[in-house]
Specification:
The chain is of the alpha+beta class and about 280 residues long. About 20% of the residues lie in helices and about 30% in strands. The strands form two sheets. Strands 3-4-2-1-12-11 form a six-stranded mixed beta sheet. A six-stranded mixed beta sheet has the order 5-6-7-8-10-9.
Length: about 280
């Protein structure tokens, strides 16, 4: 069995207004833990975020999960300046209890969207499982612009397609950084996609590829639950500012569909404005 939790932790800011990463760790334990943890919205140095004291949350998560290998996917990295004397970083992390073969970090399109927008990225980690190598990707797409999200999804699909094409036509292995690492089409794509289940962009993510042999990506929830609606994953416990809705998803390459055992949207936790999602593969 392989288990994974994906969660937009909102820098540990709970519904009660308190920031607590130990509470995030405790909630993951309550859910049964996981071999892979994918967290979005991890902060360091941003003391102007609500409730955040500016401490390094990347380092704190590494301390809270000592049995995991920390892989950082920093998308915002602002060095100290005269008016802001501390380094400020923001992004995603993947924590793995499984051996890690490779870590890649990709910037996603960041064109003018007409409103608030920041650099987004996708963190890619290849781990070794009992069934072979497995690619895990986690991301957090822009909320303010459907057009920008469209470009980001096109980029995600291109990255996935190119990874599969490296499986079909491997590079020659060389010395040093030219040495090759295990490649696979088996992929799990997780994160906060800032799209509701009826958004046509979810259909785009799952569209077929032009390259023969590239397996489609499939939304894991309907694979098991068919016509059941996605459970809410944001603003479940506080609708004072925004309505509750589902924005968080786990996509699988078709090659992994036969191994899908369960996917659950936790409806209890109040440790973030988002709910954790847990997946199990056989």
């Amino acid at each position: 069995m392989l288990s994974l939790i994906t969660w937009n932790i909102q820098w540990g800011l709970g519904v009660d207004g308190q920031v607590s990463l130990p509470r995030i760790a405790a909630e993951c334990a309550r859910l049964g833990g996981a071999d892979i943890l994918c967290f979005q919205e991890v902060a360091d140095g941003f003391a102007d975020l609500r409730g955040h004291d500016g401490s390094d949350q990347f380092a704190e998560l590494a301390r809270l999960f000592p049995d995991y290998q920390m892989c950082e996917g920093i998308t915002i990295d602002w060095p100290p300046t005269g008016t802001a004397p501390v380094r400020r970083r923001f992004g995603n992390v993947i924590l793995s209890r499984l051996p890690v073969h490779q870590v890649l970090r990709h910037a996603l399109p960041w064109k003018h969207a007409g409103g608030e927008a920041m650099q987004r990225g996708v963190l890619e980690v290849t781990v070794q499982t009992d069934e072979g190598p497995l690619r895990i990707l986690t991301t957090h797409l822009e909320w303010s612009s459907a057009d920008l999200r469209h470009h980001q999804i096109v980029a995600l699909r291109r990255l996935y397609q190119e990874a599969c094409e490296r499986v079909f036509t491997p590079h020659l292995s060389g010395k040093g950084p030219y040495a090759t690492r295990p490649q696979t089409c088996d992929t799990i794509l997780t994160g906060d996609f800032n799209m509701r289940p009826d958004d046509p962009l979810l259909t785009l993510i799952q569209a077929s590829f032009e390259t023969d042999g590239v397996p489609s990506l499939c939304d894991a929830w309907p694979l098991l639950h068919r016509t059941d609606q996605h459970p809410p994953s944001m603003c479940l416990h506080d609708q004072s500012k925004e309505p509750t809705r589902c924005l968080d998803y786990i996509f699988l390459s078709e090659t992994l569909e036969p191994r899908l055992v369960s996917i659950d949207y936790d409806q209890i936790s109040q440790a973030s404005d988002h709910q954790p999602v847990r997946l199990v593969l056989g």
